[in-house]
Design goal:
With 196 residues, the chain is an alpha/beta fold. It is built from six helices and seven strands, in the order βαβββαββαβααα. The longest helix has 24 residues, at 161-184. Its EC number is 3.1.1.29.
Length: 196
Amino acid sequence: MSPWLVVGLGNPGPRYAGNRHNVGQMVLDVVADRAGASFTRHKGRAQVLDGRLGTLAGGAPGPRVILAKPESYMNLSGGPVAALATFYGIEPERLLVIHDELDFPAETLRLKRGGGEGGHNGLRAISQSLGTRDYGRLRVGIGRPPGRMDPAEYVLRDFSAAERAGLDVTLQQAADVVEDVVTLGLDEARQRLHAA
């Protein structure tokens, strides 16, 4: 069976690293820390970690997974994701994209396959490049902007100190979901998450 490609969306460089828009990449950093491995540059314009997640019955290493953080800006994520999918021979049903979600309260996680992009430019770019919307999404709630703040400005702001405490727990929970998807499959992982 082909590996999973798990993509954490965000914008490149240290300037954006703590932004709400980069929460997908923050999740992958937690997964990488747990695996005791690090990302390396890939010719597909992404930072990539090719490894295994979890353990199988009898203690054997878990399934192979490709973790990827595109080095493009969010609205250009499609090119790197499509290039990696082609390079590793991964079909859309083995793709999981982790992204920020304005329409969910902070610390909320939702897992689904397919559907619309909800105005998310990163998802729109991926759907266009792949020619399908039928891939997995792990949505990490960041809440709505306060008052009349422009959502585009809000997602490019760092999490506040007060938000960081809850965020650390959410990132660990999201990393658990990633591991469940890779070891159990998306449908079972979704049932486990949404039953909690």
